[in-house]
Amino acid sequence: MTQSEFRYAHHPNDAKNYTTEKLREEFLINNLFQPNQIKLVYTMYDRLIVGGILPIDKALKLETIDELKAENFLDRRELGIINVGGKGKVTVDGTVYELDNKEALYIGKGNKEITFESISEENAYFYINSAPAHQSFPTKKITKNEAEIVELGDIKYANRRTINKLIVNSVLETCQLQMGMTELHEGSVWNTMPSHTHTRRMEAYFYFDLEEGQTISHFMGQPTETRHIFLKNRDAVISPEWSIHSGVGTSNYSFIWGMAGENMDYGDMDAVKTDELK
């Protein structure tokens, strides 16, 4: 079964007047994983689709949704998958790809039948991002050993972290979709700090590996008009191109970043000095 939602884009002058409830309604994506279901959120920010797939005791097929007006989900799209649960498998037009925890799969435009299954006692949790694509690139699995790994931050500033660039143009060819995973070290709780924006692309963050009973405050908004949203484990949040996207947790955690837009240069960021945030 597939559930889908549609989210509009927002002008920053409107968003800064939102109540807590309205802010959460427009930008937070919660309850992403439902047993034996596929949940998709189609956002008008670069037409990115954010999704969660939780197969329990049967294979789940990725079907097209009304918003796409297409016979197959990937007729005009590319797809990135990162497994954040137990071992699972993704079958792409008859070819099987097994994904362990924190392994990724890129599927190019034009593939027709994609199914998801759990194949271990612990269920697989497939987190997905999809973006429009203008040409087809080969399907490819990416392990953590094949990722481009960058160490950033400092324990002094509570932001020591390991960035795993998984589905990025330095690892494989994509049209516009870029995905990776950041793991905060024990004792570090701040991500993407100092903050930045990048008007060339939007972003979505998916938070996981958060200890039960803890929370994360995700900061968004224009640098001088910031707002926050509290999140739980396995919640996602949409980040507009005009918004910062930083967070702090009451314990360490991991998160997946996914980007779509016209620029795939990871270093293309408009930095904001920490002491200039408001």
Automatic annotation (TrEMBL):
<dbReference type="GO" id="GO:0042840">
    <property type="term" value="P:D-glucuronate catabolic process"/>
</dbReference>
<keyword id="KW-0479">Metal-binding</keyword>
<protein>
    <recommendedName>
        <fullName>4-deoxy-L-threo-5-hexosulose-uronate ketol-isomerase</fullName>
        <ecNumber>5.3.1.17</ecNumber>
    </recommendedName>
</protein>
<comment type="pathway">
    <text>Glycan metabolism; pectin degradation; 2-dehydro-3-deoxy-D-gluconate from pectin: step 4/5.</text>
</comment>
<feature type="binding site">
    <location>
        <position position="198"/>
    </location>
    <ligand>
        <name>Zn(2+)</name>
    </ligand>
</feature>
<dbReference type="InterPro" id="IPR007045">
    <property type="entry name" value="KduI"/>
</dbReference>
<dbReference type="GO" id="GO:0045490">
    <property type="term" value="P:pectin catabolic process"/>
</dbReference>
<comment type="function">
    <text>Catalyzes the isomerization of 5-dehydro-4-deoxy-D-glucuronate to 3-deoxy-D-glycero-2,5-hexodiulosonate.</text>
</comment>
<dbReference type="InterPro" id="IPR027449">
    <property type="entry name" value="KduI_N"/>
</dbReference>
<dbReference type="GO" id="GO:0008270">
    <property type="term" value="F:zinc ion binding"/>
</dbReference>
<keyword id="KW-0413">Isomerase</keyword>
<feature type="binding site">
    <location>
        <position position="245"/>
    </location>
    <ligand>
        <name>Zn(2+)</name>
    </ligand>
</feature>
<keyword id="KW-0862">Zinc</keyword>
<dbReference type="InterPro" id="IPR011051">
    <property type="entry name" value="RmlC_Cupin_sf"/>
</dbReference>
<comment type="similarity">
    <text>Belongs to the KduI family.</text>
</comment>
<dbReference type="InterPro" id="IPR021120">
    <property type="entry name" value="KduI/IolB_isomerase"/>
</dbReference>
<dbReference type="GO" id="GO:0008697">
    <property type="term" value="F:4-deoxy-L-threo-5-hexosulose-uronate ketol-isomerase activity"/>
</dbReference>
<feature type="binding site">
    <location>
        <position position="203"/>
    </location>
    <ligand>
        <name>Zn(2+)</name>
    </ligand>
</feature>
<dbReference type="Pfam" id="PF04962">
    <property type="entry name" value="KduI"/>
</dbReference>
<dbReference type="InterPro" id="IPR014710">
    <property type="entry name" value="RmlC-like_jellyroll"/>
</dbReference>
<dbReference type="GO" id="GO:0019698">
    <property type="term" value="P:D-galacturonate catabolic process"/>
</dbReference>
<feature type="binding site">
    <location>
        <position position="196"/>
    </location>
    <ligand>
        <name>Zn(2+)</name>
    </ligand>
</feature>
